[in-house]
Structure formats: C-alpha cells, structure tokens
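Minutes, project check-in
Item: structure for the 398-residue chain
Input as provided by the requester:
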Amino acid sequence: MTIEVKVPSFPESVADGTLVTWHKQVGDVVEAEDILADVETDKVVFEVPAPSDGIIESILIEEGATVLSGEILATLGEAKAGVKPAPAIVEEKPAAEPIASSNEESFVTPAARKMIEEHKLDARQIQGNGKGGSILKEDVINYMELGTQKTPPSTPMAAPETFVGERQEKRVPMTRLRKRVAERLLESQSNAAILTTFNEVNMQPVMELRARYKDAFEKKHGTRLGFMSFFVKAVCEALKRFPEVNASIDGDDIVYHGYFDIGIAVGSPRGLVVPILRDADQMNLAEIEAKIRDFGARAKEGKLGIDEMTGGTFSVTNGGVFGSLMSTPIINPPQSGILGMHKIQERPMAENGEVVIRPMMYLAHSYDHRIIDGQGAVQFLVTIKELLEDPARILLEL
C-alpha cells in the first residue's frame, strides 16, 4: 500500500512555503514521526514527519521548490519484514558529506553543498542549524547575507571572498523571512503616519534593585532577573493609561484592545522574529523573564510556532544589546506603537544643582499619528520613564 507524504497544513496567514531540505532519500527505511523534510515559510520552518513506518518509494518535490499546504511531497511503501531504518546520516551517501570541524563532525546537504561549491565557500566557517548540526541551504544563504565568511589561516586569501580593493559583486537570494520582513517594513512606512518621540531614563534604581535581589530571585524562580521584565511591566501599565497606544486601525474603525499582548523582538539565524507575550499584564517578573529566555532559545533553534508570532498589540525591541545608543524603531503592523530600548551608558546629569554620573538609557516610542496624538505619545513614554525610575510603583501598580 502506498502512503502519501504531504506538506503540513499552513495557517490562513501563510500562502505557501519552500522545501528547504530532504533529510531522507529514495530507498531509505523510516519509522513513523521520523523527520523527512523541512519546509520554510515566511514565519517558521515546518518539519515534515513520516506518517507511518515504511520505505521511501519516490520524492516528488525537489529542494528549493515552492509548495502549497497539503501538497504531496513523496510516497512511502511497505518496508520488508526485518528491515530496520537506516541511521539519519549514512557515511557512504553522497547526500551528506562529512566536513572537518573544530567542535564536532557536521554534514552538508546536497543543496547546501552545491551553493558552497558555486561560491567557493569554506564549509568549516558555516554554522549548521539542521538536524544533528547539518548545514542546510538556508544556513549557507544566511552566512552569505551576513558577509562574515573568513578563510582559514592555512588557505590563501581569495579575492572573490574578500572583496578588498576589487570591484566585485555577489548575488544571493533572499530568505523567505527576509523577504517578508522587507514587505512588512515597507507596508508599515507606506500605510502609517509614523512619528518617533524620545526620552531618557535613569536606570540606576532598576539596576540597584536587580543587584540586591538577583541571587534570591534566581534561587526562588529558577530564572535570572533581567531588565526586560521591568520594561514589559512598565509598558503594560502605560498602555492601560493610554488605550489608544494599544489600539489598531481596521479600515475606518479604531479597534481598542482590552488585552495586552506584547511582541518581543528576538534575533535568530533566519533573521528578526517577534514572538508574543500573551496577557503580559497578568504575568509576574519571573514568568516574563522565563518566557523571553525560552523565546530566545527556541528562536535560535527555529522552534517557534506561527501562533507564537501572530497577533500582538504593542512591541518592544532592544537595540542596546548590539550597542545602539539611539534609533527610530518601525511599527509592526497592524500595531500602532513600538518601544525602542538602547544601550545603558554613564553620562553626567544635573541633579539638585549638582553634576552626578548616572547610567542612562535613551528610549524611543514610534507611533501611528493617525490615531495617537503627540500629547498621548509623549505622556505614554514619560509614564514608562517614571515607572522605571521608581520601580516600586510597577509592583504596587501606582
């Protein structure tokens, strides 16, 4: 009996995907739930599991092809009695050639291998994010986009890789995520009247509170106390006072949201993703810290689900972790506002007629001026500043 292997069902917000990698080949014996392939969408990567035990009879869709929800990718037949699945990586197969690595043996998929050879890259410099650390085509594309490839010391420096003093070009395809980010940024700037207001916050009170209780906090809650939880709690309180900042435009209507789903911008190998803290106002500091760390870890592994990155009423992004002193963040539509955090830097400040050194952070609030007036936007940011400079008010909801 032949069994069809199909593309997983996509949510309504996802039209199609790209078949990135085949982890099995024709003739391989598999067990139910073995991962056969990866399908990348503009939000997440779906793993395609084997629907049952069997042997792969045919592969109908090649790597790099666009696929639709429910499309047939391959067929399985009944495996002979006593035949067991082959290991995920078979050494003699050309489909996954081993590459020497300083850490562990890694493998390169055929599509990735082809790109590496075409662009004369060093596979040892590429971080593999596939199963067992294997290098995927997506990993090669991301590596080339970053432009950080280095030639090992034992290899002569090649001009096509360095671009130093040469008029050369390199053309690489955008990943689906990068294309979607580009589309949404253009959509945001084209369809919203975006303004940004700035302020600065003295981080000393939060830093002193964190230093005083961080050990006890981690011992009790099992997670470290960072700065992000204070900002999320301050944002939720400010949104309650200025509901227009938590609203969105739908046609000719303004939709005021009675809940506080905060998007947290997180970096991943595929690019920036924004998972959502649902009902963040009902979470305590420990729950927020633990959830954000979980988001960060799973973003690196490509394990975030579409439902975790859908929705949101307001977003927070922290460019300070990369050293940014000031920026103008772009709204994530259909949201109407985003808060930008930045680097904490000691600066001389005037207090009570004296100059003192304080750890200061610039804050940026970008907002949609179509529904948020300047007065409300400024007061919203001032509220966040006041709460952070007196963090006891966050806990007491004052």
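Outcome recorded: The radius of gyration is 25 Å.
No further action items on this chain.
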